[in-house]
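Milestone M4 deliverable, item 7.
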Amino acid sequence: MTQPTPIRRDHTRRPLMNTHLSTALDLAARGVPVLPLRAGKVPFANCPACLYTSCGGRPNMKTPGPCNCPRPCHAWAAATADTDVITGPAWATAWKQAAAVAYHPGGIGLTVVDLDHADAVAWARRTLPATRTVPTTRGEHWIYQGAMSSANAVRDGVDIKSTMVYARWLGPGTGTMTLLPDTVRALIVKKPSPVRPVTPAVPTGGGECRHRTPAYLERGIAMAEQRIREAASAVHATVYRTFLAVLSAHGRCGCLTDAHAARLFAAAQTKGESPRHCTDAWTNARTALGM
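Output delivered:
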């Protein structure tokens, strides 16, 4: 009697996967940066050293900035296509508890127009060029080729998800993806205005910073310029993080002037940032700090 062929067990293969982990690995194989989400579309707190806000984020962990802590970080900054990270010990428990998979649209040059209800969908059909669409619980995601700054509530029921945010993966969708139109970019473009000094509070001490010396401010601006110019990668994130640090230290005491902001903008533009991106990063940093 012929003996059955023994089953070979390859112990080097990845462990048994649940649906979300399998989806994440399929996306990563196509170069899509992914991360696990818990119930409520909230990312896992897999970066305790950051305390959720020290990286430039907000307490709800949905939109933190990047950080220098060991990867993976949290929220959109954790999104990765590295299968060793995805299947590694840092996320082992997260995938067991995950309720969904998210991805970083801007990380692959995409923009998601998140339409949150039927009226928003109707507006998009009247106003925006047709593109790939994905149904959501209450509305649709319209996905375009091209990245831009992200913004919430650009109009009733409409959010823009691209750089420095994550979006839920809800399937490949239907339709042909088209280039990001100016119509979408214009949703977050404000009227041009000169850089204004940051003066959210009246300074004390005869106009000098009440907790730093003028020399300290000058040194801080110079270090910020150097940090931006030395950025070898993730320039947009570095610019945002640097603006955040400067505003955090000096934005509430009236020290900063147009000249200081212009120096930071100029440093960013030497790295390829556009004036609009500089303004967006500055505005986002002020918003994150409640200014």
